[in-house]
Design goal:
It holds the Pfam family NIL. This protein is α+β, with helices and mostly antiparallel strands and about 280 residues long. It has helices spanning about 15-20, 40-50, 55-65, 80-95, 110-130, 140-145, 165-170, 175-180, 190-195, 220-225, 260-270; strands at about 1-5, 5, 25, 100-105, 130-135, 150-155, 155-165, 205-215, 230-240, 240-250, 270-279. The chain has 2 domains: about 1-145, Rossmann fold, CATH 3.40.50.300; about 200-279, ACT domain (Alpha-Beta Plaits, 2-Layer Sandwich). About 40% of the residues lie in helices and about 25% in strands. The strands form 4 sheets. The chain has a 4-stranded antiparallel β-sheet. A 3-stranded parallel β-sheet has the order 3-4-5. A two-stranded antiparallel sheet has the order 1-2.
Length: about 280
């Protein structure tokens, strides 16, 4: 494993202890100590490290203010909501001024509204403190909303990586496509019912899903594709600073020209998927 281009495998225990202080971590189920107050939970790592009391008080006060829980310092975890507990976990993870904040499924146990607020806090911490936030998650919407880069793992191996907007716009590996499938707009029921894996007659139309980056001129796209085109579904979203559009089209033309049609589509789209055929 490399951290800052340094292989940590040969590190002895003393070097690992020093390294761990550069890495803060928050957990899916918070891991707070129920018998200690919010203040005491955040202060504990500093006490263990032998930090003087005055410095502990300054640091804990500063961090509780940062995560929006200064008014909750005397209460116990049982009196907090899930989002508030995760904020305590974030404050505790920051006590040693880490360079990296590792978030292990940090929003998986939270409702959508609370998830959004925690992601906004992590974005603010990333920008204000200048630390790197590493999210481990199966929630592709979380990656879309906050991350700059993504690494897709299967059985411990990297199968795809890159900037989020590019991987989401043009997934190459089947695992990535499967993970991103829930974010795809559902096809209209009538279309799904009529889709066939293969053409059944010369008049069948090919149904394509195109992922488009930027702002292409659709009239030029349609003219280039040729044939009789119907727009079945479409939308656009912004990932970071990049516009990502998606179109579902049916294109009717000669069944012998399908290869040329796909080649023309790929001139315009980052990713082209044949969904099937309709009569």
């Amino acid at each position: 494993m490399l951290i800052d281009q340094t292989d940590i495998a040969p590190f002895d225990e003393d070097r690992l202890v020093t390294l761990r202080r550069r890495i803060g971590m928050i957990f899916q189920h918070f891991n707070l100590m129920s018998a200690k107050t919010v203040w005491q939970n955040v202060e504990l790592p500093l006490k263990v490290a032998g930090v003087p009391k005055a410095e502990r008080q300054r640091k804990v006060s500063e961090l509780l203010e940062l995560v929006g829980l200064a008014h909750k310092h005397p209460v116990y975890p049982a009196q907090l909501s899930g989002g508030q507990k995760q904020r305590v976990g974030i404050a505790r993870a920051l006590v040693h001024d880490p360079e990296i904040l590792l978030c292990d499924e940090a929003t998986s146990a939270l409702d959508p509204e609370t998830t959004a607020s925690i992601l906004e806090l992590l974005r603010d911490i990333n920008q204000r403190l200048g630390l790197t936030v590493v999210l481990i998650t199966h929630e592709m919407s979380v990656i879309r909303d906050i991350c700059h880069r993504v690494v897709v793992l299967e059985r411990g191996e990297i199968v795809e990586q890159g900037e989020v907007w590019r991987v989401f716009g043009s997934p190459r590996h089947e695992v990535t496509r499967t993970l991103l499938a829930p974010l795809q707009a559902r096809l209209p029921a009538a279309l799904q019912a009529n889709l066939r894996a293969n053409p059944t007659g010369p008049g069948d139309a090919m149904v394509l899903r195109l992922n488009l980056l930027g702002e292409p001129q659709l009239s030029d796209l349609f003219n280039d594709l040729g044939g009789r085109i119907r727009l079945l579904q479409g939308g656009i979203e912004t990932i970071g600073t990049h516009a990502l559009g998606q179109l579902v089209l049916s294109v009717q033309g000669s069944p012998h020209a399908s290869h040329q049609l796909l080649e023309r589509a790929r001139r315009w789209a980052e990713d082209v998927e044949v969904l099937g055929y309709v009569a």
